Amino acid sequence: MTVIGQSLAEGAAGIALLHLETGDEYAVLAQLEQAAEGGVTVADNASLYFGAPALAFVLAATDKPHLARARALAAEGTGIVTRRKLEAAHRRIDQRRRPHYAEFDLIRGLTGLGVALRRLGDVDLLRAVLAYLVRLTEPIGPLPGWWCPSGPRRDRPGPPGGHSNHGIAHGITGPLALLALARLDGLHVDDHLGAMMRILRWLDTWQRRTFDGSAWWPPTLDRADLDLGTHTDPGPGRPSWCYGTPGISRTLQLAARALGDPTRQNQAEAAFIRCIDDPARTRLLTDQSLCHGTAGLMATGRRIAADALVPVSVEPLLELHRTTTRPSQAGLLNGRAGADLALVGTATSWDACLLLC
To answer: Phi, psi (5° rounding) for residue 220?
Structure first.
């Protein structure tokens, strides 16, 4: 129970976000007590979605005095985890070895820790994370610095030669989103723009279009794709937050805003609009979850619409969400808490854990 409790994705920590949004203080406290029962980890598996950083993210949304010590301890633990992972990542880069995506991604890596630090207001350590992300984008040989030696799935062998991951949850669009959000906050590090442009040029190169001209991006690329100069998927897949066009479109919109590039912003928003207007794509969403389902699409759409240069209606997404199968589990990423959060709003900016704001 304790292990699950301190998970933002599946446990009490994530469910607490729902109660913070709805203002149910008693339920918040009960979930936080369950999350912290038996202690909170700062071990190597700690991340935005597990352990001290997960609790730090949740606790940063409340200023209740009786939680002050818990906030301080979680923030301290986040700093310990981040510094240790930064040291390991820089050592890996110095040795010209390739990263596993868990080093840099949102769910388990340094991008996610950067999200927690941004929420905590730890600017100095966030700068160190951004500086690492800049180094991550620098090529190692003929391939980009984020090229992973393994495959995108931990439970099966990867393609020969590794892959480039593009999903916002596990791929390079996560670092791009954090770099863009930091720049929009007024925070800059050396070669900040250069790093953003290296990622954008890669995504521009591998952008694909449907028969009617709608833009989409392959979720991953392997060496065979590079050798062929094309991607073998016939068209866009599920329009999910985690790997699909919606999450990538929001990242590109944020990057365009950070760069002051209205042309790129219009293109990103057009890709999202064409995606949600395509019934063949939206019917691929079969549940209400945040990660793979309609809640993630709706949360992403709400943030895109708020910043859009042209009107974007999320009403059809609300109807889609309400008529899709409700998750059986209770958690945030794949459960009912996430499904309900997509309906109740963003007053606490809970969706920062999705890199949407």
So the answer is: -145, 160
What Å distances lie between residue 57 and 2, 49, 62, 114, CA to CA? 18, 9, 10, 11
Closest CA to 2 of 59, 50, 48, 66: 50
The residue type at 275: C
Q: How far apart are CA 150 and CA 154, in angstroms?
A: 8
> Are 153 and 131 contacting, i.e. CB atoms less than 8 angstroms apart?
no
Distance CA 174, CA 250 (A): 10
Q: Is 10 helix (H, G, I), strand (E, B) or coil?
A: coil
The pLDDT tens digits of the residues spanning 23-43 come to 999 999 999 999 999 889 999
**Is-contact 215 207, C-beta < 8 A?**
yes
**DSSP line for 108-136:** TSHHHHHHHHHHHT-HHHHHHHHHHHHHH
Q: What is the pLDDT of residue 4?
A: 83
Burial class (CB in 10 A: 0-12, 13-18, 19+), 213: exposed
DSSP bridge partners of 143:
140
Residue 198, SS3?
Answer: helix
Where would I find the H helices in the chain? 2-5, 12-22, 25-36, 52-59, 68-94, 101-104, 110-120, 123-136, 173-184, 192-206, 223-228, 245-259, 262-276, 279-282, 294-307, 315-322, 336-344
Model confidence pLDDT, tens digit, residues 197-215: 999 999 999 999 998 899 9
Q: How many CA atoms lie within 13 A of 146 on its CB side?
A: 32
DSSP for 211-266, written as a single string? TT--EE--SEEEHHHHHHTS---SS-----TTTSHHHHHHHHHHHHHHHT-HHHHH
Specify which residues 217 forms β-bridges with.
none
- CB contact at 8 A, 281 and 236: yes
170: Cα separation from own chain's centroid: 7
Residues 299-306 have a mean pLDDT of 97
pLDDT at 145 over 80: yes
Residue 346: pLDDT band with limits 50, 70, 90: very high
Q: What percent of the chain is predicted at pLDDT more than 70?
A: 99
**pLDDT band with cut points at 50, 70 and 90 for residue 230:** confident
Please count the other Cβ atoms lying within 10 Å of the Cβ belonging to residue 278.
17
